[in-house]
Amino acid sequence: MRIVQPSFEILAYTPEMTKVIERGIRTAYKSEDKIEEGSDIEIIGRIKNFKHESTLEHAAITVHFVTDRGVTHELVRHRIASFTQESTRYCNYGKGKFGNEITVIEPFFYIGYSGTYSLWKKSCEESEQTYLALLATGSKPQEARSILPNSLKTEIVVTANMREWRHIMTLRTSKEAHPQIRQIMCPLLQKFRQMWPILFDDVGNTEHTHPAMEIVNFDNDEWS
Ligand SMILES: Cc1cc2nc3c(=O)[nH]c(=O)nc-3n(C[C@H](O)[C@H](O)[C@H](O)COP(=O)(O)OP(=O)(O)OC[C@H]3O[C@@H](n4cnc5c(N)ncnc54)[C@H](O)[C@@H]3O)c2cc1C
């Protein structure tokens, strides 16, 4: 059984997205003559104030996440986004391509607590043994997956427009959100803020609640 950390990678985004959004807004008011250096930031700031947020739907971002099945179950509740996820129906973790083993995401809140950590690890290992035993009986992956844990590593590509990303960030970086979705969304929000401050400065909460959240190394520093 392999134990890995969560991560994300920004795959694509609308080029010059604040300018694209500005064109949409200025089409409404026929004020294209006012487009100049910095006018996109100024007008987006204004439309956010009076909640003319449908204009933020003209730009989108696509992100690839590596996380666990518990977290993706929460992500896919966001109905305005589009998703493509690693399939436990079609992926057979008993095959050599997967190293004949399952991969799980390490729950950061158990790191350093030997009692709970070993209980979690033992349970995942038992799931793996049962999964492989079910495959050995001739079960299909879509049948044997029934016993796989929430900690199972999965990959998901998420595309959403800027209005929806703002909503997702508000909900999923909140202190009320699950710690593992915060673990991945807080650093993603920090990246979004670096890249498009006007679109993300006023949403979300990147304050960490658990020191272990700091240890995760998100390997996409080309964006910083
Ligand atoms: C802290 C937390 C705890 C949660 N706990 C639970 C739980 O215990 N059980 C559970 O089942 N879920 C739970 N959820 C999931 C939650 O109920 C939502 O399904 C999820 O957060 C998606 O949010 P949303 O519906 O606002 O947004 P999205 O689906 O992303 O939609 C964005 C916005 O579009 C609008 N919209 C979308 N669809 C419709 C529609 N059909 N009609 C009208 N407006 C629409 C709404 O304004 C919505 O806010 C929890 C979420 C959070 C953040």
Write the layout of secondary structure elements.
Layout: E1 2-4, E2 7-13, H1 17-29, H2 39-49, E3 60-68, H3 69-75, E4 82-85, E5 103-105, H4 114-136, H5 141-144, E6 153-161, H6 162-172, H7 179-195, H8 197-200
Parallel strand pairs: 1-5
Antiparallel strand pairs: 2-3, 3-6, 4-6
Helix pairs in contact: 1-2
Report on this model:
With 224 residues, the chain is α+β, with helices and mostly antiparallel strands. The chain has a single domain (1-217), classed as Gyrase A, domain 2 (2-Layer Sandwich), CATH 3.30.1360.170. 40% of the residues lie in helices and 16% in strands. The strands form 2 sheets. The chain has a 4-stranded antiparallel sheet with strand order 2-3-6-4. The chain has a two-stranded parallel ribbon with strand order 1-5. Helix 1 (17-29) packs across helix 2 (39-49). It starts with a strand and ends in a 24-residue tail after the last helix. The mean pLDDT is 93. Bound molecules: flavin-adenine dinucleotide. Flavin-adenine dinucleotide binds next to helix 6.
Main attributes of the structure:
binds flavin-adenine dinucleotide; 16% strand; alpha+beta; elongated; two-stranded parallel ribbon; 6 strands; 224 residues
Query: How many β-strand runs?
Result: 6
Element pattern in H and E = EEHHEHEEHHEHHH
CATH architecture: 2-Layer Sandwich
| Broad shape | elongated
How much of the sequence is in beta strands? 15-25%
Estimated helix fraction: 40-55%
How many helices? The count is 8
**Which regions contain 5 or more consecutive residues with pLDDT less than 50?**
none
Gyration radius, in Å:
21 Å
Distinct compounds present: flavin-adenine dinucleotide
Largest sheet: 4 strands, antiparallel
Q: Estimate nothing, just give the exact number of structural domains.
A: 1
Class derived from helix and strand content? alpha+beta
